[in-house]
Design goal:
Chain lengths: 89, 201
Amino acid sequence: MSGLLAKPAFRVWLFLAAATVLSWWLGADHGLGSGEAVIAVVLVIAFVKAWFVGQWFMELRTAPASLNAWFYAWLVACATAVVVLYLAG
Amino acid sequence: MSTITPDVERSTREELGSGKRVPGEIGVWIFVLADLVIFGILFAAVLVMRGDDPAVFAEGREHLSQGLGLLNTLILLTSSMFVVLGVDAAREGRGSTARALFAAGVACGLAFIGVKAIEWGGHLSDGFTAHSNDFYMMFYVTTGVHLLHVVIGMAGLLGVRAMVRNGIDPQRRALVESGGIYWHMVDLLWLVIYALFYLAV
């Protein structure tokens, strides 16, 4: 277990799994009444998780800034569109 | 086996002096970014259609199995971790470990498909098809296109697994990494699909 904990991939997986269970708890009518603001937070958490997948699993943290910039551009544009359209809907 | 990338190749994938390196093939990144944009448009379309008929989407979401959605998200996250560890093992010349980890990633992909089959089977037997309403149309289209990516990603992982029999060949390092990058994109897209369909709309 301590060997696994030494691996960043395992620690990132633990974080992503915990964030997923938290999102499920908040969103699946178990949490705070699942109001619009709570669900907007759940959507933002999904894009934070996507950022972690990009940086740590797809190795963008050690990639040239130009490649990272394309990924960031998508992430910010998509997250903004999804949250704004959700709140407007 | 040496894992040093030849200078000629390295000079094409590193920014001079920065020590930074493009993981995988440039081509896979173009494909990944194009796919991300297409799915982004799909997500926006789902929400615009929800704006036209919020009741249908809320009712549709309530019919989805929260447990199966959560389970499939955890399955894909776990598969991604196996693939990260597999790429690391391959780069370190540990071929048999890498093969086992890629096989575990593929097994998770099979489990994801199995859960999806149970889920779709349940909806279809309840009489909900893609023609039932806008929610089910977008649900089947989005999760169906994603499922196609899961199958392609699994084929990629099996291809990568075959390449690392004796550790990683320096010439194939980028190809092995590309298989991993594609699989992580499949995982990343599902994270958003899960939040959107199972928790939000």
